[in-house]
Design a protein that fits this description.
Chain lengths: ~650, ~800
């Protein structure tokens, strides 16, 4: 039945001359598009309308086909339709409610598509009329609120959320969507929270609710006081926050699972032939993009929760029994960014990947600054196996996933950072991401130093990754300097070493790890020597990098002291013992014997950092991100909203 | 009330008096308190009595009758006095419906009693009357010994229990039932399993004698109610299902659980409660939601969730249901255990446990408590990350730490307010958050105002890392810890300051020093997650958890721990606990420096329970596995070399505890003694755990452990070898301990014997359990013979290591010496 009707609509659109059988509802729509009041000749017009199955394509198409002036002519009828929709929402019969909701979707979208250039105020006028807009929207929001909170049908609630999402994403730039001003005044925040706190509804609508909330929070975030921000920042009900965390965690782990499936599928298909970069490029096909983008919305939600709500971190830190081991730790934040970061080398043409990667690093930054989250990450009692998706590379085999050690979560974060450092040294150098990555490591070290946490971690991997990064910076000096200030990054890396050198006693796990640090520095002294001569060169000539480079020269003082102190000692040891190549153990022996004659300079501010601040530095990024999410949600919505056949069936059987 | 002059509950007597059946006996003036035999001090008399129990155990019915009548008379007399003089306490006036009476406890100063009593009286009255009628038939004044004993100061709870159990005379039983009120609560509490087992499995008269006391105590204490309900359930479980349903035990359990035994004082506190419906009828509705398990909570949450952004769940203040929250709490702990058992690996179990507990935390604080604790408190938080799964093959016992707030009285103190987890941490807020209040009010008047409980001043919060306080000596005096402004750019301020120089050697030295100072911790082993947690010194753990807890700043904050066992019958453990406790007090009384550590047991049902963990102790198995040292070397590592005081005192502790547990193992025939079941504490004591195989039961497939107790060469090495002084001391302690225990054999046997009633426990298998137990005390031996016995047992246990044969003791018990 439904299909026939649908086809009728489509046919009509494509070939009007054929005079197909018009559905009743289409006829009624046509009446609305006349300038006369349709209820004039049939008083029960509106009542009947909402008993008809909505033909969204037709309605939207019709609205789209009219230009601004034509639309203004039938403004009264549109206003009337809008009002009657809202009226119908309050009725008992679910079919009328469903139809009203769908009609509203079509109306809002149709009007917007037509009026892309016109202002938000015009649209409000077109839909509701200025004089009635306030009351109209109040009624609409109240109806939606009570529908969402009632013990009613789940599909009805779902449709309500779709309508809200439709309303929120109808413009590309959410802040230009003036109708949302009414959504700010008539808050549905509590309804969203209730959905999240109530397990059955959370399972059904959690995703939509979280995305909706994330978007609402971003409405004129920087210009005005957004009540959703205010409210989200003070939520402290654990059930609700927990629900939100679960929704995010599940969405992210689903993404991880999909990725893994793909990866495995791919590997079984091509065996070992494609264990290089090509393999990972292959994954990034068109199909994958969708899931990366849907992921952005959920990552944004996670970010907003972590950033705005001081209680959310505690929830993050609590695992939930519903989450299995497979999904890795419950705390979605620290681990899930693994995927976009660890797997995808952002190629310049892939904005979304860069976005996701950046957002993940920002989330990690927020987490690394938070004391409670840090306590959780470093908790020796909370051990997790985190399976990082390591990219297959030329020089290393894919690590066996099976016998991962079970460690505090911070080890996984550090691993991830090391992984990122190692895998993203490319021509299109993601400088911003690298800076953030090093900052995350630095913040974690600051916590460990402050709290005297001695993490049993193989720091050596981090050290060698950092040294390799320095080498990369130097070998690509000319290319990189054209685009970036590589000295900031170099300075941060050197200072990480300084942190280990001067404060190692507060957080290194064993005395021998301190020895190993020296060993690593001495072993790689060539890189530091090169770096020093480079920065010295640039700081002595009066170029634009003079100041930046000179900072690095000063930061290198201790590393150079170590190299200059131990190298002669090692050489003489070799000479005395007639050994050409010293073993690691022999070098360590020399190191241990000669600490006492080495003097280091204590540098200021090694354990200080600048706190993350969104408003001043990241506003543009988030604006762009929200725009892309909006577009994406809107695109997906078109498909979903139209396929409400199931819903109609559900209600037709009830009635 | 515990230490006040003994209050005597006179309900049964008073009612009997008010009833018609009992004919008033001739009023006989009694001189009281009856003094014991002149010149006898407590200690010697006691020994006389215990030695002479055999003679006295024939209870003269007449004496009992007389005793009973005397009590009745006194009640009557005093009650009359009260009525005439109007010497009523204020309490009586409040509670006019009850039968108020005052009675003098036989050997104690007069005490006032007030008790309102309704349905209970009738049953007791009839029984007392019945007893009285029966007693009249054999009425002779032949012996007043029993009465004199009962009235003497030496008549303690142990004797009372013994007479209650052995006497066939309803009069005596009723009398003792009343006398229970005279004992200190904690003394009677020790025998609660015995009392309840008698109540369930013995005849009606015993039951009737016990019931009033139980009911009275249930009214007073919610914890007592819980314990009773649990024990009644557990000890009824061996009955046939059809009889069980209608048994007295089940009925009493229902009565207790129905909450009809609410403490009387609550009524007084809430005088205007007229509109409240009968509270017994709808307990489910009022159940404090936070104590519910996850499954139920989701339901209750949905219905109760108020649509406010912040929803501090405040307790429903009108008359909280007494036992329901606690039972829900226990139920959720058990449910967690069941779910854990389905998971294959330790690691999965641990993770699941932690996450389950974090959910449980959402429902705390609540009107719940840990029954194993010795003080009144409310549970406020379970530090979920600290919980560990214990080693077990198929079941999943786990150990949790529980933060509680101590309180004066569990019933009257209100449940502490919830402090959110994040209280401990910083307040990070949106840049413009403070100003939002006004604008958002303007914007929408419809917003509900958010309850803010951030305003109490006592709460403390630590800011983010920037201000995080770490109470450690500041190592770098020159470091920039106190700089609050930070900028990445100011790192090398070469021009501003005099450079500070440090020696690399110092850094390296500090690192090794700091690591050397930390006590030897165990390494993390995914297969044995509990080892690390148990090795951490308790004080250290308390400090650490307190620092991380939002409730830690409160002065009445305490940390408790408990092992939750699901799928294990702890009734034998409880029996062992009682025996150990009894032996401990005997040895203390007789000044034998034997050391044992009875740990508390909560029997929840026939297949679940809780155990109070022994703190600062790890199993010898874990010690050896982690340290890879012999026990002696481990002692040397932990306590210092042979001549240090620390080592010597640890060695002495080891010997004293070894001797104590060897006797325990022998007397109770504790089997299944592997190193996983023997703990070693930080002071060198050993502690035996797991009394799953005692008395008549032993593990079937392990062959038989023929030796009297476990004494390995490793143990002997710690004691300084076979020829050392400490080893002789060890044997001497055993002998002294055995002599002391023998002297008080009845006190020990009694505990076991009563519990045998109606029990299907494997430890009572066969018919000779009690006889064998008694034989192991060797009442007929001289001290010289006992010494020989100890020598032979030690010898045999030593030899059994090499030969696995042990026969010397068999010789001995068969009379061949």
């Amino acid at each position: 039945m439904a299909q026939v009707e649908k086809r009728g609509g489509l046919l009509r659109k494509s070939s009007a001359s054929k005079k197909p059988l018009k559905e009743k509802v289409v006829l009624m729509y046509d009446e609305i598009f006349m300038t006369e009041d349709p209820s004039k000749c049939s008083p029960r017009f509106w009542e009947e309308l909402f008993l008809m199955k909505v033909n969204l394509e037709y309605l939207e198409g019709k609205l789209e086909s009219l230009d601004g002036e034509e639309l203004m002519k039938i403004k009264d009828n549109i206003n009337c339709l809008f009002q009657h929709c809202i009226q119908a929402l309050g009725e008992d019969h679910p079919i009328r409610v469903v139809n009203a909701l769908q009609t509203l979707c079509a109306l809002i979208r149709g009007v917007h598509q037509k009026n892309k250039s016109t202002s938000g105020f015009d649209i409000i006028n077109m839909l509701m009329g200025f004089d009635k807009a306030e009351l109209c929207m109040k009624n609409l929001m109240e109806s939606l609120d009570s529908l969402l909170c009632a013990e009613g049908s789940e599909s009805l609630k779902s449709l309500c959320l779709k309508l809200l999402l439709c309303l929120v994403t109808v413009t590309d730039n959410i802040s230009q969507n003036t109708i949302l001003e009414y959504v700010m005044i008539n808050s549905i925040f509590e309804a969203i929270l209730q959905i999240l706190s109530h397990p059955p509804s959370r399972r059904e609508h959690g995703y939509d609710a979280v995305v909706l909330l994330a978007l609402l929070v971003n409405y004129r975030k920087y210009e005005s006081v957004n009540p959703y921000i205010v409210k989200l920042s003070i939520v402290d009900d654990e059930a609700t926050l927990n629900g939100m965390g679960l929704v995010i965690a599940q969405a992210l782990s689903e993404y991880n699972r999909q990725y893994k499936d793909k990866e495995e599928e791919h590997q079984s298909g091509f065996f070992s032939a494609l264990t290089n970069m090509v393999g990972s490029m292959f994954i990034a096909d068109a199909h994958e993009k969708i899931s990366v983008q849907t992921n952005e919305a959920i990552l944004l939600a996670l970010y907003e929760a972590v950033h705005l709500n001081r209680n959310f971190i505690t929830v993050l830190a609590q695992s939930h029994p519903e989450m299995g081991l497979v999904t890795t730790p419950v705390s979605p934040a620290p681990t899930t960014p693994a995927t976009p970061l660890g797997t995808t080398p952002p190629s310049s043409d892939d904005e979304h990947r860069l976005h996701s990667g950046k957002l993940c690093l920002i989330i990690l930054t927020c987490i690394a600054e938070d004391q409670y989250a840090n306590a959780f990450l470093h908790d020796d009692n909370m051990n997790f196996r985190v399976n990082l998706h390591r990219m297959p590379m030329r020089h290393r085999k894919k690590a066996a996933d099976k016998n991962l050690p079970c460690r505090p979560l911070v080890c996984a974060v550090l691993d991830l950072m090391v992984e990122f450092i190692v895998t993203h040294m490319m021509k299109e150098f993601p400088m911003d991401l690298y800076v953030r990555c090093i900052q995350v490591v630095h913040k974690l070290l600051c916590y460990q130093k402050k709290c005297r946490v001695r993490l049993h971690y193989t720091w050596r991997e981090l050290w060698s990754a950092l040294i390799n990064l320095l080498k990369f910076l130097m070998s690509n000096e000319t290319v990189l300097l054209a685009k970036h200030n590589i000295f900031t990054l170099a300075l941060m890396i050197v200072n990480l070493f300084n942190m280990f050198i001067t404060y190692g006693d507060t957080f290194l796990p064993t005395p021998s790890s301190y020895d190993e640090l020296y060993y690593e520095i001495i072993r790689m002294h060539q890189s530091f020597d090169n770096l020093y001569s480079m920065v010295l060169r640039l700081s002595t000539n009066a170029g634009q990098w003079k100041e930046a480079a000179s900072k690095v020269t000063h930061a290198l003082v201790n590393i150079r002291a170590i190299i200059n102190h131990f190298n002669p000692k090692i050489e003489s040891y070799a000479a005395v013992n007639h050994i050409s190549q010293l073993s690691e153990e022999q070098v360590l022996e020399v190191v241990r014997a000669n600490y006492d004659t080495l003097t280091l300079k204590l540098q200021d501010g090694l354990d200080q950092y600048e706190r993350y601040s969104e408003q001043h530095k990241e506003a543009a990024f988030f604006k762009e991100l929200v725009r892309s999410i909006s577009t994406n949600v809107r695109r997906n919505l078109a498909f979903h909203t139209l396929s409400q056949e199931v819903l109609l069936k559900e209600f037709s059987t009830i009635s | 009330m515990k230490f006040s002059p003994v209050l005597l509950e006179a309900r049964s007597l008073a009612v009997a008096m008010g009833d018609t059946v009992v004919e008033p006996a001739p009023l006989k003036p009694t001189s009281e308190p009856t003094p014991g035999p002149a010149g006898n001090n407590g200690g010697s008399l006691l020994s006389v009595i215990t030695e002479g129990v055999g003679e006295l155990s024939v209870i003269d019915p007449e004496v009992a009758q007389k005793a009973c009548q005397e009590v009745l008379e006194k009640v009557k007399l005093l009650h009359g006095g009260v009525a005439i003089s109007g010497r009523g306490s204020p309490l009586e006036l409040v509670n006019g419906d009850g039968v108020d009476s005052e009675i003098r406890c036989l050997d104690d100063p007069p005490a006032q009693i007030r008790e309102e009593e309704d349905e209970m009286g009738a049953t007791v009255a009839s029984s007392t009357a019945k007893g009285a009628r029966r007693q009249r038939q054999n009425n002779s004044a032949k012996q007043s010994w029993l009465l004199r004993l009962f009235e003497s100061k030496l008549f303690d709870i142990s004797m009372a229990i013994s007479y209650l159990y052995n006497s066939k005379e309803p009069g005596v039983q009723a009398y003792i039932g009343n006398r229970l009120f005279c004992f200190r609560d904690e003394d009677v509490d020790f025998y609660l399993p015995q009392l309840l087992n008698m109540y369930i499995h013995m005849d009606e008269d015993v039951g009737d004698a016990i019931k009033p006391y139980i009911v009275h105590r249930c009214r007073q204490s919610i914890n007592f109610s819980l314990q009773c309900a649990l024990l009644l359930g557990a000890y009824s479980s061996d009955m046939h299902i059809s009889t069980q349903r209608h048994s007295r035990g089940t009925k009493l359990r229902k009565l207790i659980l129905s909450d009809e035994l609410k403490p009387a004082h609550r009524k007084r506190e809430l005088p205007s409660l007229s509109p409240a419906p009968d509270t017994g009828l709808s307990p489910s509705k009022r159940t404090h939601q936070r104590s519910k398990s996850d499954a139920t909570a989701s339901i209750s949450l949905s219905s109760n969730l108020k649509r406010t952004a912040s929803n501090p769940k405040v307790e429903n203040e009108d008359e909280p249901i007494r036992l329901a929250p606690e039972r829900e709490f226990i139920k959720s702990l058990m449910a967690i255990g069941k779910r854990l058992a389905t998971l294959p690996t330790k690691e999965q179990k641990t993770q699941r446990l932690i996450s389950e507990l974090s959910l449980l935390n959402h429902k705390l604080p609540a009107r719940v408590w840990l029954p194993t604790a010795g003080f009144d408190h409310h549970v406020v938080r379970v530090p979920h990350t600290q919980a560990v799964v214990l080693n077990s093959k198929d079941k999943a016992p786990y150990l949790i730490y529980v933060e509680v707030l101590e309180c004066e009285n569990f019933d009257t103190t209100s449940v502490p307010a919830r402090i959110p987890e994040n209280r401990i941490r910083s307040t990070r807020s949106v840049e413009n958050l403070p100003e939002c209040g006004i604008t958002h009010e303007q914007r929408a008047g419809s917003f509900s105002t958010v309850p803010n409980y951030d305003n109490d001043d006592e709460a403390w919060s630590v800011d983010d890392i920037g201000e995080l306080q770490v109470e450690l000596p500041e190592v770098h005096t020159n470091s920039c810890d106190n700089i609050s402004q930070f900028s990445v750019d100011s790192i090398t301020s070469q021009e501003s300051k005099e450079p500070v120089f440090i020696a690399a050697g110092d850094i390296r030295r500090r690192l090794s020093e700091q690591l050397a100072h930390t006590p030897t911790a165990f390494k993390r082993d995914p297969e044995d997650p509990s080892a690390v947690a148990l090795k951490e010194p308790w004080q250290e753990k308390v400090r650490r958890i307190r620092e991380g807890s939002p409730y830690g700043h409160l002065p009445n904050w305490r940390l408790l721990s408990v092992i939750v066992k699901c799928g294990d019958d702890l009734r034998q453990e409880l029996l062992a606990f009682q025996v150990l406790k009894q032996l401990q007090s005997i040895w203390e009384q007789e000044r034998v420096p034997l050391w044992i550590k009875p740990y508390k047991i909560l029997v929840i049902s026939a297949d679940s329970g809780m155990i109070e963990p022994v703190v600062n102790a790890v199993s010898i198995h874990q010690v050896k596995k982690q340290s890879q040292l012999s026990l002696l070397d481990y002692f040397l590592q932990e306590h210092g070399s042979y001549t240090t005081e620390a080592f010597l005192s640890a060695q002495r502790n080891f010997v004293q505890s070894c001797a104590g547990y060897c006797l325990v193992c022998y007397l109770l025939q504790v089997k299944d003694r592997h190193n996983g079941n023997i703990l070693l504490d930080a002071e060198g004591h050993i502690i035996h755990i797991d009394f799953g195989f005692i008395l008549s039961s032993s593990p079937r497939n392990l062959g038989f452990e023929t030796s009297a107790f476990k004494l390995t060469t490793e143990f002997v090495d710690v004691m300084g070898g076979l020829d050392g002084d400490m080893f002789n001391y060890y044997k001497m302690l055993m002998l002294q301990g055995l002599i002391a225990a023998r002297k008080h054999m009845d006190k020990v046997v009694q505990i076991v014997e009563i519990m045998q009633q109606g029990s299907q426990l494997p430890c009572f298998h066969g018919s000779s359990t009690i006889r064998n137990l008694k034989e192991r005390f060797h009442m007929s031996m001289t001290e010289e013979q006992l010494q020989l016995l100890v020598e032979q047992m030690v010898d045999g246990s030593m030899r059994s290591i090499t030969t696995k044969l042990y026969d010397g003791f068999q010789y001995l018990t068969n009379g061949i010496m």
